[in-house]
Amino acid sequence: MASKTWFVTGASAGIGRVVTEQLLERGDRVAATARRPEGLSALADRFGDRLWTAALDVTDTKALNDTVERAFAELGRIDVIYSNAGRGSVGAAEEMTLASIDEQIALNMTAPIHLLRAVLPHLRAQGGGRFIQMSTMGAHITTPGASMYHASKWGVEGFFESVIAEVEPFGVGITMVEPGIIRTTFGANLDLAPGMPEYADGPAGQIRAYLASVDNVTAQAPGDPAKVAAAIIASADATPAPRRLALGSDAYNAMRAALSGRIAELDAGKETAASIDF
């Protein structure tokens, strides 16, 4: 299989780091971006010029556009864009700070939108490519206390599902990756909102209290990060590009239950829906 060049955001930790390592080990070239790219120094020492790095906060749209332009200018063709950077915030809707609300939308939804817009002219010019967006089973299910996280993920999936048909004629494929809970540092990096006593004994307060009591809720998660990374990499070679990639039995079961429940709710309102027609 011919080697590829990938552009990865959030490459210094979590699944982004594992994907970057696996790509380099199999002989691919990676443009790896992260807020703290010094975390990639060991890989740079090991793999030399097959690893291109840049400091990038994806919520800085000008920096994002500049980094994309520089990567394509210096590396030429980039075959796969892996939009991985993201974070979760936890708290009841009323507990969330303005900063946390803004961050969830900017990081998990707006930044991927701007990244796609920045790379599309290059992908069209080179005759195609792949865009892989890291999503979550949380784009189909919801949890009390994670309203803004779910909102950002439901929103970004709505955007990409709409765009799939727009870019298909240019040979650009889009895949949304929807894992369950993976054994990474995601849980340790959660943004916990300050609690309000009114919510302490309710569902959101109980979840927030549990998360605050453990160092890393995902430390013993069922999902194997190495297998998740391998599945993401393999999806870039699948033809046509899979629209969605559910990863983990927990993700499959939770999403199937949620989708089945929504179908049942829709069917229950069938007569009401038809009743308003002329």
From TrEMBL:
The keyword Repeat does not apply. Signal peptide: none annotated. Belongs to the short-chain dehydrogenases/reductases (SDR) family. It comes from Streptomyces sp. 900105755. This is SDR family oxidoreductase. The keyword Protease does not apply. Keywords: Oxidoreductase. SUPFAM superfamilies: NAD(P)-binding Rossmann-fold domains (SSF51735).
